[in-house]
């Protein structure tokens, strides 16, 4: 009998991702393995084109169509994360509930686990009439200057 997502532990490693594929009856093709290995190695949010380019750079020949099809299959099964952005989709490895810090200077997306105070959640529930069971927050900001550069800026007349 196949395991359900509720019965399987969260995906925390490449091995967990491969195991989840097997539990779901997904074939672990060479291309699928390359994509998962790359995502787990880089720990970044990457577009399909970036994944294709990086695989090509390291001599892993995977076609464009294969990259897109595998990313769709993996994200639809909850094995990888898919972020919808105005400029396209980005794929990452964390699939459990988490938030993102988006750097407007570098376009970097950093995964963070944020726990809101229970009184804030209760206020939201009271205002909306909806019981909150999960949440994701997107933070946006600019890279903070390095402490040495900040001191230089502050000490200038």
Structure write-up:
The structure is a single chain. The chain has helices at 14-23, 30-42, 48-57, 64-76, 118-128, 147-155, and strands spanning 81-85, 88-92, 99-103, 109-112, 138-141. By secondary structure, it is α+β, with helices and mostly antiparallel strands. The protein folds into two domains: 14-92, Orthogonal Bundle (Arc Repressor Mutant, subunit A); 99-155, Dna Ligase, domain 1 (2-Layer Sandwich). Strands 4-3-5 form a three-stranded mixed sheet, with no helix packed on it. The chain has a two-stranded antiparallel ribbon with strand order 1-2. Helix 3 crosses helix 4. It is globular.
Count of spatially separate domains: 2
CATH homologous superfamily classification of the largest domain: Winged helix-like DNA-binding domain superfamily/Winged helix DNA-binding domain
Could you tell me the CATH topology label of the largest domain: Arc Repressor Mutant, subunit A
Residue stretches low in confidence (pLDDT < 50, at least 5 long) are 1-6
Instruction: Please count the beta strands (DSSP E, at least 2 residues each).
Output: 5
Shape: globular
What is the rounded distance between the termini?
Answer: 72 Å
Order of helices and strands: HHHHEEEEHEH
Rg, rounded, reads: 20 Å
Mean pLDDT across residues:
87
Strand order of the largest sheet: 4-3-5
Beta-strand residue percentage: 5-15%
- CATH architecture level-2 label of the largest domain: Orthogonal Bundle
Number of helices: 6
- CATH class of the largest domain equals Mainly Alpha
Q: How helical, in percent, are the residues? A: 40-55%
Structural class: alpha+beta
Biggest sheet architecture: 3 strands, mixed
């Amino acid at each position: 009998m196949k395991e359900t997502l509720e019965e399987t532990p969260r995906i925390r490693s490449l091995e967990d991702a491969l195991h989840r594929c097997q539990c779901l009856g997904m074939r672990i093709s060479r291309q699928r393995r390359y994509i998962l290995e790359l995502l787990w190695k880089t720990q970044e949010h990457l577009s399909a084109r970036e994944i294709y380019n990086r695989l090509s750079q390291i001599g892993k020949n995977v076609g464009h169509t294969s990259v897109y099809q595998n990313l769709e299959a993996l994200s639809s099964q909850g094995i990888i994360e898919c972020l919808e952005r105005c400029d396209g989709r980005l794929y990452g490895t964390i699939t459990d509930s988490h938030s993102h810090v988006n750097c407007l200077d570098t376009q970097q997306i950093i995964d963070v686990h944020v726990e809101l105070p229970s009184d804030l959640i209760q206020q939201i529930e009271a205002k909306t009439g909806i019981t909150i069971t999960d949440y994701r927050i997107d933070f946006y900001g600019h890279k903070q200057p390095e402490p040495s550069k900040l001191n230089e800026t502050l000490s200038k007349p």
